Amino acid sequence: MSSRYAPLGLRLASILLLVAIWHFAAWEWQNGMLPSPPEVLQVIWRETQGGDLPYHLSATLLRVLASFIIAMLVGSTIGILMGRSEGINQFFDPWLIFFLNIPALVVIILCYIWFGLVEWSAILAIVINKIPNVVVTLREGARTLDKEYLEMAHSFRLSRRKILLHITLPQLLPYFTVAARSGLSLIWKIVLVVELLGRSNGVGFQLHLFFQMFDVAGILAYSLSFILVMLILEYAFLQPLERRANRWRR
Amino acid sequence: MLEIRIDNKHFEDYRSEEARLVLENIHFALQPGEFISLIGPSGCGKSTLLHIIAGLDKAFNGSISWQGGHDTGDARLGYVFQNPRLLPWLSVRDNIALVLDNPVDHAHQIDALLEATGLSAISHFHPAHLTIGMQRRVALARAFIVQPTLLIMDEPFVSLDAPTARQLRHLLLNVWDTRPTTVIFVTHDLREATMLADRILFLSTSPARVIREVQVDISRDIRADERIVESRYAELKLLFNQLYPN
Predict the structure, then answer these.
(1) B87/A149 Cβ within 8 A
(2) Same domain, A7 and A90
């Protein structure tokens, strides 16, 4: 029991220490460029009351979720195909390296120029940025699929559906979770840039406004709120999902 | 029921670019309900032979013909591998149910087989929590649940401690007694083959050929009698030593 709860205490202590350092620094450096934690909390409260914060947070969250789902689906499919077939892998590997190395900013700018400042070109830009990472992870997973299980499946004449559901996907699940967790954190950072450059709502759009006014409290209020949303997603969905998927392990 | 004619089987050797001959002139037939055992030195190509019979490997010269219009594609096959190959993310019961087309309709059969193999109490466990002996019972139950036309067993009791292996051999005989099927059983243990099989085929070192065929001649109702098995084993051991002088 204690081993399970001790890290929680440790984590709380570490967060409290961080807040304390912040508070102390703000108190030392009183020129308005670093607001103290209570001041930021006040902004969060004010923006929540006015409805701005929930509105922009949800706009960003929707973009994150939409691009996350599309990138995971497309990226996993390509990754699994590349992992299973050496021919496909050889053919698409240069493309993969190209897309892995093209800067996020370039993709975003080009999408906006070519397809206009519309929602779907924003989503497309995020998806293109994320897909290569999913492909790399799932390709690795597909390469490690156990041939012995497949032989067992074939000797018992299992249907393709059963092989996919009960043999292939469970083996890929750990790779899928890795891609999902690293994906979510990568995607939301890109979403902010996309919003800053060409959307009229979302956390990125708000940060842009606060930047123009040098409003650090506003910047911190919006970033911290969104980090909180991501933490909730991580602890409430991703981690329980991962535990559930791994409960058969010893 | 099943006629196996393998003229030859080669493996590509990527280093020398020459094809290596692994099986040559393996011809034998199985009668319905017969239990045959294949004995041969390690690495002689027994697993390859089983793969061909199971239809997992189609690149060979020869034919596998099933009487009664079956081909390898639609004969019901049970396969017990050397390594149990249970899916670690499924419970014991789900591992067994997986190989059935319609597990819900066969819930009774699954229960009965779990009972017969002594797995009822642990049917909700995951394989990682079982001993290797228990895992092999599950693999056995999984193979029997499909009511196989042919049951292929590839050294299913190898590297178990002697009492566990003995227990599992008796279990196999019991289950087979109530659920009779045709069996091909690969082993390198002559005593095991003597106890279980109706007929033993001895294979040579690679490339594998059938070098001798022997009827065991112990009637099925007295196989559990270890003295009878032991005296027949002593006779076969002499032959065995001639066939494999080293």
Answers:
(1) yes
(2) no
State pLDDT tens for residues B219-243.
888 888 888 888 899 999 988 888 8
Contact A157 B126 (CB under 8 A): no
* Residue to substitute from A146, A155, A164, A171, interface B, most B β-carbons within 10 A: A155
The pTM score is 0.79
Question: SS3 string of chain B?
Answer: CEEEEEEEEEEECCCCCCEEEEEEEEEEEECCCCEEEEECCCCCCHHHHHHHHHCCCCCCEEEEEECCCCCCCCCCEEEECCCCCCCCCCCHHHHHHHCCCCHHHHHHHHHHHHHHCCCHHHCCCCHHHCCHHHHHHHHHHHHHHCCCCEEEEECCCCCCCHHHHHHHHHHHHHHHHHCCCEEEEEECCHHHHHHHCCEEEEECCCCECEEEEEECCCCHHHCCCHHHHHHHHHHHHHHHHHHCCC
Q: Which residue, among B56, B85, B86, would best test binding to A if mutated, counting the most A CBs under 10 Å from its CB? A: B85
Enclosing domain of residue A27: 1-31
User: Contact A155/B83, CB-based, under 8 Å?
Assistant: no
CATH architecture of structural domain B2-76+148-243: 3-Layer(aba) Sandwich (3.40)
From A26's Cα to the closest Cα of chain B, the distance in A is: 52
ipTM attached to this prediction = 0.88
Chain B residue closest in CA terms to A147: B85
